[in-house]
Write a structure and sequence with these properties.
By secondary structure, the chain is mostly helical. The protein is built from 13 helices and no strands. The relative contact order is 0.21.
């Protein structure tokens, strides 16, 4: 085991372990944990493409751990999860195959704006829920939901970061699920979407197995605690964590934190 991690310094191991614990917790409760783990993998020296692929290995294992916890807590709907996972997996294949074709700067800006828009259904979810649920219960609404999950799978295969948040919002507003049950369904879909994309990355040599194994173990521990915390605290707390995660992710993508850092540096001069 020591030889397996011989290429990693103690600082690298600590960085990966801490980011994995926090990311696993966040992904089980809301999403966006990859905003921590992908930069951490790049910081220890992995190329961005390899970091993107390596992170997916950890997402699979942490999602399996979270699923075991949600099943134990009776917060799953396997039928719905499988029905939505199929179109999402098809989208994931397409997204993984074209994952490096878009301009990064434009894509990040559009993603940040989209994430801020997602705050609307989260904040006003009780009002929107009944209206959107009435539409989703029709045959047309079900087909629309499957199209939406194909799109989510496309994004998940392409980048992965924040895919869980898109799934939660769709399940909550269009599927009528409370956020605790939505999390149980989400992890099943994430397993399918990420699993098939991870195979494509691995076949193209885009997975670092030593860093991936360490990240998988620590993020799985975080996911187990996150699943139990979310169910015990209830939907209100999950909504708070979800909204907070979206704001932090959007600010990161728009470069707000970097700008604030520069302003603080100017004031210190």
């Amino acid at each position: 085991m020591a030889a397996f991690f011989s290429a990693m310094s103690l600082t690298d191991i600590l960085l990966i372990s801490l980011s994995g614990l926090v990311a696993g917790f966040l992904n089980a409760v809301s999403g966006g944990g990859a905003m921590l783990t992908v930069p951490a993998l790049i910081l220890i020296g992995l190329p961005p493409g390899v970091a993107n692929g390596t992170n997916r290995l950890a997402v699979i294992l942490q999602s399996l751990t979270a699923l075991a916890a949600y099943k134990k807590l009776n917060q799953t709907d396997s039928g719905l999860a499988v029905a939505l996972m199929i179109p999402a997996m098809l989208g994931s294949v397409c997204g993984a195959l074209v994952s490096v074709r878009l301009d990064d700067a434009v894509f990040q800006t559009l993603l940040a704006i989209t994430m801020m828009i997602l705050l609307i259904p989260i904040v006003f979810e009780p009002v929107l829920n009944s209206k959107l649920l009435a539409v989703s219960e029709t045959g047309r609404g079900r087909r629309l939901l499957q199209v939406v999950f194909f799109g989510i799978g496309l994004y998940g295969g392409f980048l992965q970061i924040g895919a869980g948040i898109f799934i939660l919002v769709a399940l909550s507003t269009m599927g009528g699920l409370n956020l605790m049950l939505a999390n149980g369904v989400k992890v099943v879909i994430i397993i399918g979407v990420t699993g098939i994309a991870c195979c494509i990355f691995a076949l193209n040599g885009k997975v670092d197995w030593s860093a991936g194994l360490l990240l998988s173990v620590t993020s799985s521990i975080g996911a187990w605690f996150g699943a139990h915390w979310g169910v015990s605290r209830g939907e209100g707390w999950i909504r708070i964590v979800l909204a907070g995660t979206i704001v932090v992710m959007a600010f990161q993508l728009l470069g707000v934190w970097e700008m604030l850092g520069r302003l603080l540096a100017l004031f210190q001069l």
